[in-house]
Design brief:
The protein has 698 residues and is α+β, with helices and mostly antiparallel strands. Helix content is 42%, strand content 13%.
Length: 698
């Protein structure tokens, strides 16, 4: 495959207004909109300011404002017609040229997928000439920025020049590495230089941020982890989807990333440079980089369920996932089974991942458009009630108010109360229950069960079925909904597209119909946590827990459940590997928590070990050295520096071991000696003895 990259000079400032009107008309926009844009861009002027100098006014009869919100949309419509014209002229030739074009606003690619360099050069030359002629509508191609690149899988692929002088361009000499839109491509598309560049960049960043904190002072441990995850790791993994997928060669790239993460772990916890990698990662709460990439990649594939039906990616997918999009000639749906089995591509992985999800998204649904949202019209008639704080006193006052509101609703003719709850059992069965109360009695009990959804979705289902029955089966003016998860309710009123779309849109439309029906109609949402043990809510909660497993709805995975499943699967894999791995260090000390369970690694909420340590950097360094066994003590010297003294200065041990220091040594305070392997007792011992396992004791 060969490509030519071209650049358009001053793209936004050079758009022709007359041609833009033609593009808008071709796009099918109505006359009023076209006239609006014609008026908007007519008789515009600009002035130039330099310090105190202000130029005269100049007429601006071309271009669109680059910072305007309309400019990207108008420029995209402008380029669509140019690309269509390009393809029509290619087809109108005596011999059709098998070439394609991609556009990224003012940057474009001409692509030829011929096996012969000679044919590719001829086809790219013709395509370049046609594109140069088409851009005469007010745009100018900047020949000095044009580049050529040839991609091939052979061991030593040639990298031939392309002569464009016959069509007014330069002679393009390809380079071994081609940088385009922040990506670094080599001829075999291994992306090794790309990974090396960003890994090296992040190593430099890590060297710089050491000024913010070290093993004894500076920013907190949680801040170090946050800084690494938000400012370093995203830059390192920029564009990882291009090289990380099934069966792709990635050993060298992963080696680069492991070096970078090792440096980060050393900085966060202040360990020895010779400390075992897997042990440091676990203490710092950093999932191994390969597992992290797999998690990101699988969750990334799930996002393709939410792209619009007009998205170009749909043309590469299988027909059942293409959202009625016409398949591209090289799409997986046009390949034979034998070809699919040999295919190594992220598109193949996307098809496999999407087969597990049942949900479909419509990001352009009118419900999410400005002016159509429920909250836009009825913000004063939909109210939320929750405690002022999480304190027991505020919660008690809130429940007392809830009691008064509930009794008032039951004594009023046109009021209805809906009490909801949802839950998910270990086997994956989700139960949603709603009780409709009127005149101090339950007039309707509803229950729905499904599988493979999250807890929030189960709660949202309960609210949905409860509100549906309250709206359809009564003539109430006020509906009081009592739930233990207001987050689920707020999803109904959110303006952005979310994974709950399938549940949100139907109930939101019913709420809108109910509120439009009568100006007296209102809906109040009250928060009632399970720990408050409010009797009416306990009835619903008990029904959820005692319900027999009998799913009545489709059991294919929801989007959020699939995402959670992938994360849990990789977390379990990490924990299993860590339990048997030698990479954590032969001397890694296995601690137990307060429930006498062995602590397992996790990346959530600061990891498994750091929350016990607290915020002190020096204490974390002590704890890490002790846990890994890489500390300036006799036991460590016996393994790595046998010529140094290995006995304890107290004289009671011939070899100074961790167990001796923590439980027997007279040099340290006996009052805080740990008596078991519970982590809190060891942290307490280290905080009382700052010289233990530290360099001050070396």
């Amino acid at each position: 495959m060969s490509i030519v990259a071209f650049d358009i000079v001053q793209f936004f400032a050079s758009l022709n207004h007359n041609f833009l009107s033609i593009c808008l008309k071709k796009a099918g926009l109505c006359t009023n909109i076209i006239n609006f844009f014609n008026s908007y861009y007519t008789s515009r002027s600009t002035t130039y300011a330099w310090n105190s100098f202000l130029s005269p006014s100049f007429l601006l009869n071309i271009g669109v404002e680059q910072g305007s919100a309309l400019s990207p949309i108008l420029s995209a419509i402008y380029m669509v017609l140019i690309i269509k014209t390009f393809k029509k002229r290619i087809k109108s030739l005596n011999k059709e040229i098998p070439s394609d074009i991609l556009s990224f606003v003012d940057n474009g690619l001409l692509i030829s997928q011929e096996k012969s360099y000679d044919l590719s050069s001829v086809f790219l030359l013709c395509s370049y000439n046609i594109m140069s002629n088409i851009l005469s509508v007010g745009l100018v191609m900047e020949h000095g920025k044009s580049k050529v690149m040839h991609f091939m899988r052979s061991q030593h692929p040639p990298n031939l020049s392309l002569d464009l002088t016959s069509v007014g361009g330069p002679i393009l000499h390809p380079k071994p590495i081609w940088r385009y839109l922040g990506f670094f491509f080599d001829q075999k598309l291994t992306l090794q230089h790309h990974v090396h560049y960003y890994a090296t960049k992040c190593l430099s960043t890590l060297n710089a941020i050491k000024l913010l904190g070290n093993s004894s002072c500076g920013i907190l441990l949680s801040q170090k982890c946050l800084l690494y995850r938000t400012c370093v790791l995203p830059i390192t993994l920029y564009g990882f989807q291009l090289w990380y997928f099934k069966s792709a060669p990635k050993v060298k790239n992963l080696t680069e990333l492991k070096k970078m993460q090792r440096r980060a772990a050393l900085w966060i916890i202040g360990a020895f440079c010779m400390s075992p990698m897997e042990g440091m990662e676990a203490i710092a709460g950093l999932i191994p980089i390969e597992l992290h990439l797999r998690k990101l990649n699988r969750c990334h594939y799930l996002q393709y369920t939410s792209i619009p039906s007009s998205h170009a990616i749909n043309s590469l997918l299988e027909i059942q996932y293409a959202k009625n999009h016409l398949p591209y000639r090289f799409s997986t749906s046009n390949l034979m089974d034998k070809q699919k089995s040999k295919l190594i591509s992220p598109v193949k992985d996307i098809n496999e991942q999407l087969s597990e999800i049942t949900e479909s998204f419509d990001p352009l649904h009118p419900f999410f458009s400005p002016g159509y949202r429920v909250v836009n019209h009825f913000s004063s008639r939909i109210m939320f009630h929750s405690p002022n704080s999480s304190s027991d006193k505020d919660l008690h006052e809130h429940i007392q108010k809830l009691n008064q509101v509930f009794h008032h609703s039951q004594s009023t003719l046109n009021d209805t109360a809906v009490i909801t709850d949802g839950g998910v059992k270990k086997l994956g069965v989700a139960t949603a229950v709603a009780h409709i109360w009127k005149d101090n009695s339950i007039v309707k009990r509803t229950q729905v069960q499904t599988m493979n959804v999250t807890y929030v979705e189960a709660e949202l289902m309960a609210i949905s079925i409860g509100l549906t029955h309250a709206i359809e089966c009564s003539d109430s003016h006020n509906i009081t909904v009592i739930t233990d998860l207001l987050v689920a309710v707020r999803k109904i009123l959110e303006s952005q597209v979310n994974p709950f779309q399938k549940l949100v849109i139907p109930i939101a439309n019913k709420i809108k119909t109910f509120l439009c029906k009568d100006e007296r109609n209102n809906i109040h949402f009250w928060y009632c946590p399970s720990k408050a043990e409010w009797p009416k809510h306990n009835l619903v909660n008990r029904q959820v827990k005692e319900a027999e497993d009998n799913p009545t709805l489709p059991s294919k995975n929801s989007f959020l459940f699939s995402k959670k499943k992938e994360c849990n699967s990789l977390l379990n894999e990490w924990q299993e590997l860590f339990a048997t791995s030698k990479g954590k260090g032969q001397s890694f000390l296995e601690f137990e928590d307060e429930k006498q369970k062995v602590i397992k690694p996790t990346y959530a909420k600061g990891g498994s070990w750091l929350p016990y340590i607290g915020f002190t950097n020096s204490l974390c360094t002590q704890f890490t050295c002790m846990t890994l066994g890489h500390a300036p003590i006799g036991e460590y010297c016996q393994r790595f520096f046998p010529n140094l003294p290995i006995g304890c200065p107290c004289g009671r041990a011939t070899v100074q071991t961790r167990e001796h220091i923590a439980m027997q040594c007279d040099w340290y305070s006996p009052s805080s000696r740990p008596r078991n392997i519970v982590i809190n007792s060891f942290v307490h011992f280290l905080s009382d003895n700052p010289a233990a396992f530290s360099f001050d004791n070396g």
